[in-house]
Amino acid sequence: MNKSIFIVGTDTDVGKTFVTGLIIKSLRDNGINAGYFKAALSGAREEGNKLIPGDAEEVCNVSGIEEEYSNMVSYILKNPYSPHLAARIENIEVSLDKIKNDYKNLKEKYECLVVEGSGGIICPLKIKDDEVILLEDVIKVLNLETILIARAEIGTINHTTLTVKYLESIGIKVKAIVLNGYNPQNIIHKDNKETIKVLTGVNNFFEIPFVDERNQIVDNYFNFNLLINIINK
Q1: For residues 107 and 4, is the Cβ–Cβ distance under 8 A?
Q2: Is 14 annotated as a binding residue?
Q3: For residue range 95-117, what is the model confidence (pLDDT) as tens digits?
Q4: Fewer CB atoms inside 10 Å of the end CB: C or N, the chain?
């Protein structure tokens, strides 16, 4: 297996990190040497003279990856702002070349990388003078297809459909949608899933139930064979 996948969300705080950890755990539990990568993370935690990227830490805890955090995140930013603003305040120049090289170096160590985005698809990583780098540019430079993480509750039809349509308009394929916080007994959640299928044409869906704690490990919510098929196809 030598393909990778990009995890994008409809918004911030939709559960990208939690679901990314579960995807990697599923791959690793089934014998795939899967790793994690993120281009830019803002709001890192200070410990002494180091910045700890919380998303990478959470993914490693859930999935069992043993890797130096600085190898997995190109830009670890202290301020809890949009990456472009945090980088500007911290005088850090974001470069697509660095992101591409960091990804390439990490890819040599793993069969598959699950790459997590920041915020939604229009999340800016750099806006300076006449240079603009958006999350979509990272996906394109890494030449990846995507799995989209969305909320299950009301409002998700609009957010999810708009995100899928936009990604398609710029030539990025959505291979599956994950509805996070899904309750199969909730008529709204069930209808949201079926309506999104009709409006987007995406038929591969995973449902992750609501959990009380972010570090609660949820097993068996990814059909491994389907997941592998989605990534490899």
Answers
A1: yes
A2: yes
A3: 999 999 999 999 999 999 999 99
A4: C
